[in-house]
Amino acid sequence: MRHYLDHAATTPLLPESREAMLPWLGPVANASSLHSEGRAARAAVDSARQAIAECIGCLFGEIVFTSSGTEAANLALIGSALANSNPGRNRILVGATEHHCVLHCTPLLQRLGYLVDEVPADRESRIVPGALCELLGDDVLLVSVMQANNETGAVNETRELAAMAASSGALFHSDAVQTFPQRFVFAGDLVSMSSHKTYGPAGVGALYIRAGTKISPVSLGGGQERDMRAGTENVAALVGFAHAANHFRNNDFGSEMRAARDALAAELLLHGFEATVRHGPILPGHFHCRCPGIDSERMLIRLDRAGVSASSGAACSSGSLEPSHVLLACGYTPKEAREGLRFSFGKDATVEAALDAARLVIDVAERIKRGRH
C-alpha cells in the first residue's frame, strides 16, 4: 500500500469533477464565437466564473482566469508594476518565505525600475507584522504575502498585513493557493488561486482583482478575460475547477486531515524528528519537520522506495535538492535547511493510514542512521 502524502503539491482529480468535464473534452466551440456552440461554451465559462466568485464572496467581474496559480501571481505583481502611473511608488515588498512564483518576479520587476525588498519571517515562517510596518512607506506600490506557506503550512495574518499595506496606500496581493477555498481569507486587492490544489484539474487558476485596481495584461492577443489575459479559454478545465471548488466550499475535511496529521506527527516526534512549526495557526493537513543529520534528498528517495510519497518543499535544480529558501529565511543553517520534510494530507486521510506511514518513515530514518555507522 502506497501512502500519498504530497497533497500540498497537487491533489488527485475529484471523480465528480472529471464527470463534469467530460462533455467539454470533445469538439468544443471557442467561447468567443458568436454562434450557438460558442455561446454554450461562453455560458460554461461564465458559470465557472460565478462559482469561483461565490466561493470567495466577490463580484463576478472581479475574477480573471489564468493557466495556473503561478500565472495569477505573476499577473498580480507584474501587471501592477506595468499599470503604475506614479513614479514615486517605485518599491515592492514581498515576504521572504513566498513561493518562487512571487520571488522569481524580482529580476523582471527590477528591470522595470522597481526596488524589491523582502519582509523578514519569524522562526516558523510567518511574516512579522512589525517588520512590514518598518518597511512600509509612501513609496511602496505593492505588498505580496501568502495566506499560508506551501512548505510549512504556517498561516499568516493576512487581514492585519493587508490593513497595514492599505494604510500606507499600497496594494496587497495574497497567494491563496494553499488555502482556497476551505481556509480562504478575503484580504487585500489581489488574490491568486489554483485548481489542482483543490482536487480540480491542473493547468487552470484564477486571480481576484478588486474592482478599480489598476492592472496591465502581461499576455496580449484576442482580448479574452476582458483584455486581462489573452488566450482561448480551456472550457473543460474551468468547469472542473468550478466543480471542485464548489465541492470543497460545501464540505470541510479539516477534522479528518488534522487527526491524521497529528497522529503521524506524534509518532515522528517520539523518534527524533523535529517540527518546524509548533505554535500559532497551521493548515490542518500539513506537517513539516526535520530529521536532524539526514538530508531530505536521501530521505525522500528511500521513502519513495518504501511506499511513501512526500516532499521537501525545496526547489529541485540539476537533479539535487537545494536548501529550502523558506527554512533559510527562518534562520536555519544551509545544512539544516536541507533536512526539511513535508507531509501533507488530503480529504481521504485516516489515522490508521497515517500511523502506517509513520512506521515506514521511522524505519527509513533508522536504516539510514544505522548505515552511516
How would you characterize the overall build of this protein?
40% of the residues lie in helices and 14% in strands. The chain is α/β, with parallel strands linked by helices and 373 residues long. The strands form 4 sheets. The chain has a 7-stranded mixed β-sheet with strand order 2-8-7-6-5-3-4, sandwiched between helices. It has a 3-stranded antiparallel β-sheet with strand order 9-10-14. A two-stranded parallel sheet has the order 1-11. The mean pLDDT is 94.
Secondary-structure map:
Elements (H helix, E strand, L loop, with lengths): L2 E2 L10 H7 L14 H21 L6 E4 L2 H15 L7 E5 L4 H4 L2 H6 L3 E5 L9 H7 L4 E5 L13 H10 L3 E5 L14 E5 L10 E5 L14 H4 L7 H16 L3 H17 L3 E2 L10 E5 L5 H11 L1 E2 L6 E2 L2 E2 L3 H5 L4 H4 L2 E5 L6 H22 L1
Parallel strand pairs: 1-11, 3-4, 3-5, 5-6, 6-7
Antiparallel strand pairs: 2-8, 7-8, 9-10, 10-14, 12-13
Helix pairs in contact: 1-9, 2-9, 10-14, 11-14
